[in-house]
């Protein structure tokens, strides 16, 4: 295996990474990058075989027999041995990470979300752990509801699947996460987004995770900021299914314009502004919106979703012809937000649009993270 | 009594004979002297046995009980309630686990008596040879059957059939200790591979070959039962790779094996936990794209804290930290119980005490000594490769079972 001895040690890379991330985090990221390199970056020889051969001939036993003392960095080089191709990839990755502030997830190209593996690529928003957390919790809530409904309906016909609309789907992680966590055929999920990049990625992720899905998931390009009567007929009728939409879930843009200016470079310079900051309807050039046109609260998309929920009939009882589904114990609108003030504003917007009961969930870090709006009879 | 046991064990270690038979026979020879009215006829022909008169007495009692239960079950059961019926039939099958092999043992004793008679009285040489051969087979059967009975008599520990969490920590000896803990880690990894267990690193603090500490989840059937005796201080004696003057150093590594707690074993209340996500002071969500995935869980009533940042995902880290926390809590409970039991008995092998010196690896002599059973094997390489570790584990298991049995009689 070709190797360039002087150039193959990891210490300078770790040092470089430590300067921008701090030592502990640099160690973690380097470890993940090396794991990724070993798994994904080939160099013509069978890396896997090489690794097993090394581990079975007890490296330690070899060490004590060679009585001559070895320098610590020699040992380090030996155990962390990478091919020159792998090492070159690693050097590139670390320079992207430190000099260009490229997010680690974009470098590795994949991010776990629940059971799914989501492909990530710029500029589509990288799934956040906070989103993953509430999506799993929501899935649990829906599943226990489905169990209840199925229990009380023993012998009767199976209840129809829930129709779930996911707005601002981005990489598709929320739709796919639900699609694979929810009980078999208990839901069908449509994810929509305005961005072509996002839609393409969501489609790729659908294919990539197809084997894991237990529910039907599909994606469509739709601009939800246009007036409801101009939305595609299929969308207005609730995905062509009887019963219309049962639930809207979303991680809409909620960063305020002033917060946006202070975001870390790895977010601001890499991720699509349309996924972060709510822009006025019909914006064609997202980077050049006059600041007076921007909504200072960051809430305009959330409000738009509350309005949409009302207009699509989620906040009224007359459309709920299938009482056996007992939809009033399920949230009709679930929206991620960024702070306690936004949570309050979202609750207000939901009440204003007929969702007469609301609930706020905190994330693991204790921040208000998601608002759920119910329609109770 | 305990003195006898220790001597018996010493003899056991020095002779090379089939493991099981050897261990079982050399054990408790003192009891044979007082073999009295409770010993079934023919048992004296079976060589040394672990079944003391008191155990035989107990087995006879179980036999009567089994017959009673059998009569009960085959008679009219309509007067029994559903619950009572379930209890009786469970009792019946549990007792059967012991009594059926015991009946077989009594048969074997009968056969032995006949064979002995044949050997003593027969004038036909070929017939005698045949009888001697048959006796050998019967004796092996006796040993295996005794083992079955002992297994049935011993209390069942549910945790033994499940997985385990293995924690390895370098002790005194600096770099050399962490080098050796890396080697122990590979020994267990290799051993797990050989036995078809899943070996999954949860967290580790390592630099190259040096492992300061590591937490590993080993899953599979009977993992804890096999690895539970590995808990303790492992000592290494050798000339370290880093030593230039050829001096022998002694370093230590601490190993702790915790039973994998499933939800059935231990309940942790959500309200007793404090969960810290690192650098959580910011806004989170869309505002930051953090890769700092460290999660710390603190169990408030006990003050136990578990931190994990192995994976890129916070949620996965939280799950694993939770798993380790459960195992630690479960282990605390078990250690308490174990200590109570050990305080009242004189036992050779504890599974609780982590400060106990349990094994020495001497590289110069290529020797591994397990101090608890005084076993020395001159097969260091084989043991470090995970293959011959099995021998040590088997011996420890037998000694452990004998201790338990001695507690009962």
From TrEMBL, chain A:
PANTHER family: HEMK METHYLTRANSFERASE, MTRF1L RELEASE FACTOR GLUTAMINE METHYLTRANSFERASE
Protein name as catalogued: S-adenosyl-L-methionine-dependent methyltransferase
InterPro entries: DNA_methylase_N6_adenine_CS, HemK-like, N5-glutamine_MTase, SAM-dependent_MTases_sf
NCBIfam families (UniProt xref): hemK_fam
Alphabetized UniProt keyword annotations: Methyltransferase, S-adenosyl-L-methionine, Transferase
Example of a GO cellular component annotation carried by this entry: mitochondrion
Transmembrane domains' residue ranges: none
A single MF term (Gene Ontology): nucleic acid binding
GO biological process per UniProt: methylation
Organism: Coemansia aciculifera
SUPFAM superfamilies: S-adenosyl-L-methionine-dependent methyltransferases
TrEMBL record, chain B:
Coiled coil in keyword set: yes
Gene3D superfamilies named in the record: 3.30.160.20, 3.30.70.1660, 6.10.140.1950
UniProt keyword annotations, A-Z: Coiled coil, Methylation, Protein biosynthesis
Coiled-coil segments on the chain, per record: 308-335
One annotated GO molecular function: translation release factor activity
GO biological process: mitochondrial translation
Database matches in SMART domains: PCRF (SM00937)
UniProt cross-references to Pfam families, sorted A to Z: PCRF (PF03462), RF-1 (PF00472)
Prokaryotic-type class I peptide chain release factors domain sequence ranges: 279-295
GO cellular component annotations of the record: mitochondrion
Similarity remark: Belongs to the prokaryotic/mitochondrial release factor family.
Protein name: Peptide chain release factor 1, mitochondrial
Organism: Coemansia aciculifera
Primary gene name: MRF1
């Amino acid at each position: 295996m070709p190797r360039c001895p002087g150039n193959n040690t990891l210490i300078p890379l770790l040092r470089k990474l430590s300067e921008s991330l701090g030592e502990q985090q640099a160690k973690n990221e380097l470890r993940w990058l090396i794991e990724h390199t070993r798994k994904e970056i080939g160099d013509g020889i069978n890396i896997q075989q090489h690794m097993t051969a090394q581990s079975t001939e007890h490296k330690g036993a070899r060490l004590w027999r060679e009585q001559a003392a070895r320098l610590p960095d020699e040992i380090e080089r030996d155990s962390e041995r990478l091919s020159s191709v792998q090492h070159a990839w690693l050097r590139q990755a670390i320079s992207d990470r430190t000099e260009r502030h490229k997010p680690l997830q974009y470098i590795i190209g994949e991010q776990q979300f629940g059971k799914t593996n989501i492909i990530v690529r710029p500029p589509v928003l990288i799934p956040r752990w906070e989103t993953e957390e509430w999506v799993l919790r929501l899935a649990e809530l829906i599943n226990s509801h489905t169990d209840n409904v199925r229990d009380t309906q023993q012998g009767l016909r199976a209840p129809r699947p829930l129709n779930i609309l996911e707005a601002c789907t981005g990489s598709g992680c929320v739709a796919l996460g639900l699609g694979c966590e929810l009980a078999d055929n208990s839901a069908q999920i449509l994810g929509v987004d305005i961005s072509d990049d996002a839609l393409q990625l969501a489609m790729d992720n659908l294919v990539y995770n197809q084997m894991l899905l237990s529910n039907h998931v599909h994606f469509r390009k739709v601009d939800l900021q246009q007036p409801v009567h101009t939305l595609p007929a299929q969308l207005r009728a609730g995905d062509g299914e009887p019963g219309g939409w049962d639930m809207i879930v979303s991680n809409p843009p909620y960063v305020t314009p002033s917060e946006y200016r202070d975001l870390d470079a790895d977010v601001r310079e890499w991720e699509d502004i349309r996924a972060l900051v709510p822009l006025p309807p019909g914006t064609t050039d997202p980077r050049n919106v006059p600041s007076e046109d921007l909504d200072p609260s960051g809430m305009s998309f959330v409000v738009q979703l509350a309005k949409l929920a009302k207009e699509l009939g989620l906040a009224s009882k007359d459309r709920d012809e299938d009482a056996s589904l007992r939809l009033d114990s399920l949230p009709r609108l679930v929206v991620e937000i960024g702070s306690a003030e936004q949570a309050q504003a979202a609750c207000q917007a939901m009440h204003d649009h007929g969702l007469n009961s609301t609930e706020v969930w905190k994330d693991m870090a204790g921040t208000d993270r998601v608002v759920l709006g119910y329609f109770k009879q | 009594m305990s003195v006898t046991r220790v001597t018996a064990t010493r003899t056991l270690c020095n002779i090379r004979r089939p493991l099981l038979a050897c261990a079982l026979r050399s054990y408790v020879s003192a009891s044979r002297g007082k073999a009295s009215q409770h010993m079934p006829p023919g048992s004296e022909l079976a060589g040394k046995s672990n079944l003391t008169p008191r155990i035989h007495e107990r087995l006879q009692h179980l036999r009567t009980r089994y017959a009673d239960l059998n009569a009960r079950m085959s008679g009219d059961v309509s007067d029994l309630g559903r619950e009572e019926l379930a209890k009786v039939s469970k009792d019946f099958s549990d007792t059967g686990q012991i009594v059926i092999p015991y009946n077989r043992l009594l048969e074997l004793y009968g056969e032995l008596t006949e064979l002995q008679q044949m050997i003593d009285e027969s004038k036909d040489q070929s017939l005698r040879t045949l009888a001697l051969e048959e006796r050998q087979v019967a004796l092996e059967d006796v040993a295996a059957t005794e083992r079955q009975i002992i297994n049935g008599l011993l209390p069942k520990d549910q945790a033994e059939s499940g997985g385990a969490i293995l924690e390895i920590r370098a002790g005194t000896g600096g770099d050399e200790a962490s080098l050796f803990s890396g080697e122990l880690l590979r020994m267990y990894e290799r051993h797990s591979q050989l036995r078809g267990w899943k070996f999954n690193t949860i967290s580790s603090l390592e630099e190259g070959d040096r492992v300061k500490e590591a937490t590993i989840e080993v899953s599979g059937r009977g993992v804890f039962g096999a690895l539970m005796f590995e808990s303790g201080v492992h000592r290494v004696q050798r000339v370290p790779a880093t030593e230039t003057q050829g001096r022998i150093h002694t370093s230590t590594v601490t190993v702790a094996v915790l039973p994998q707690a499933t939800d059935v074993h231990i309940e942790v209340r959500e309200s007793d936990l404090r969960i810290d996500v690192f650098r959580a002071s910011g806004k989170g969500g869309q505002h930051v794209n953090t890769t700092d995935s460290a999660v710390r869980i603190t169990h408030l009533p006990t003050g136990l804290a578990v931190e994990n940042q192995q994976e890129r995902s916070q949620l996965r880290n939280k799950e694993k930290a939770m798993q380790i926390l459960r195992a630690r809590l479960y282990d605390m409970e078990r250690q308490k119980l174990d200590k109570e039991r050990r305080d009242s008995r004189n036992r050779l092998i504890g599974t609780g005490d982590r400060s106990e010196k349990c094994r020495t690896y001497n590289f110069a002599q290529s020797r591994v000594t397990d101090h608890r059973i005084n076993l020395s094997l001159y097969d260091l390489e084989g043991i470090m490769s995970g293959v011959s570790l099995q021998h040590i584990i088997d011996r420890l298991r037998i000694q452990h079972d004998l201790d338990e049995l001695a507690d009962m009689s």
